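[AMINO ACID CHAIN]
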Amino acid sequence: MAEAPTLRSQLTCPECGHSGEERMPTDACAFFHECRGCGAVLRPLPGDCCVFCSYGSVPCPPVQAGSGCRG
């Protein structure tokens, strides 16, 4: 039986370093996230499917499950 995915990730802004825990969607990838510290709009790095895979402490649920991005 597969483990349930982690649904919370610590996002860290590459612009200002602000870090905060965010809930990850299970049915879609988060392509944008506005930093609560400086207001910068985070976007995934090239090759990543979402901001959680680029800036989070835990990758998104689809990547955790091994099924890749659901875009």
Notes: The chain has one domain: 8-64. The chain has two helices and four strands. The first helix runs from residue 51 to 55. The two ends are 25 Å apart (CA to CA).
